[in-house]
Amino acid sequence: MADHRVRILESVYINPDVKRLRIEKPEGYAFIPGQAADVRIDQPDWDTKSRPFTFTSLQEWPDLELIVRIYRDHHGVTEQLSKLRTGDHLLLGEPFGAITFKGPGVFFAGGAGITPFLAIFRQLHHMKLLRGNRLVYSNRTAEDVIMHEELTRLLRKDYLNVFTRQNVIGFREQRIDRNMLIELAPDLSQRFYICGPEGFVRTVSAGLVELGASAEELVVEA
Questions:
Q1: What angle do CA 161, 162, 168 make, to 5 degrees?
Q2: Which CATH number applies to 105-220?
Q3: 198 half-sphere exposure, CB direction, 13 A CA radius
Q4: Per-residue pLDDT tens for 75-111?
Q5: Domain map of the chain by residue range?
Q6: Which residues contact residue 222 at a Cβ distance below 8 angstroms, ignoring those fewer than 6 apart?
Q7: Do 21 and 56 meet the contact criterion of CB atoms below 8 Å apart?
Q8: DSSP string over 31-100
Q9: Which residues share a beta bridge with 135?
Q10: DSSP 59-77
Q11: What does pTM read for this prediction?
Q12: Which of 112, 119, 116 is nearest to 138 (CA)?
């Protein structure tokens, strides 16, 4: 199926290197919270370069929302997205993705890997089904956290920040390792959702399985 040409309705920064794009939703376009789509920029030299981005909006919203971390040193698609303004156009593919809600569990997010979980949490909150889920969110520093205030409001005590490069009073400063997994996931029979950089996903997944979690209970992007 051909890509959908959609207009950017709003383009704003929510962090120094994180941008929120509100874009048109094509008629009949349907997705499940947690899914993504390939996105291309409708400009010469960029309309052949696609990257997957996760929707942070809900299906019932009138528009689509993408929250994108900008990597300016890569000189790639996200840097070009940083230059787009209201009225510019994107080329949007069909939804895909393996990260969908399959029941209560512990969510491990690394960096921009929070985006599929944000959509899931918003949906569960809307349905009053958020209780029983916990988020462990790993970032380099406090400034790298995406949508901290909303996550705090939604999850309250079930929201834990882990910082790897900065000492922040009241928060943990270390990487998610075996000892932390033992503390954070004493019940290995539950479901685990994992999303983030490849190394993060590999480390957390392997650690949970090594401790005794079932690989079938891990929900990760294939």
A1: 85
A2: 3.40.50.80
A3: 1
A4: 789 999 999 999 999 999 999 998 999 999 999 999 9
A5: 4-92, 105-220
A6: 98
A7: no
A8: --TT-EEEEEESSTTTTT--EEEEB-S-TTSSSEEEEEE--GGGTSHHHHHTT--TT-EEEE---B-S--
A9: 107, 159
A10: TTSSSEEEEEE--GGGTSH
A11: 0.92
A12: 112
Q: Can you tell me which residue has the tokens 């959509």? A: 119
**Assigned CATH topology for domain 4-92:** Elongation Factor Tu (Ef-tu); domain 3 (2.40.30)
Place of tokens 């994992």: 194
In eight-state DSSP terms, residue 161 is E
**66 touches 55 (CB < 8 A):** yes
Given strand 51-54, what is the order of strands in its sheet? Answer: 51-54, 36-41, 89-92, 4-15, 18-23, 64-69
Q: Which of 148, 155, 147 is nearest to 130 (CA)?
A: 155
Strands 18-23 and 4-15: antiparallel
Q: Residue 71's CB: how many other CB atoms inside 10 A? A: 15
Report the C-alpha gap between 73 and 158 in whole angstroms.
34
Residue type, 85: R
Tally the residues of the chain.
Answer: 222
DSSP 8-state code for residue 114: H
Q: What is the pLDDT of residues 62-77, one digit of tens each?
A: 999 999 999 888 778 9
Q: Is 216 helix (H, G, I), strand (E, B) or coil?
A: helix
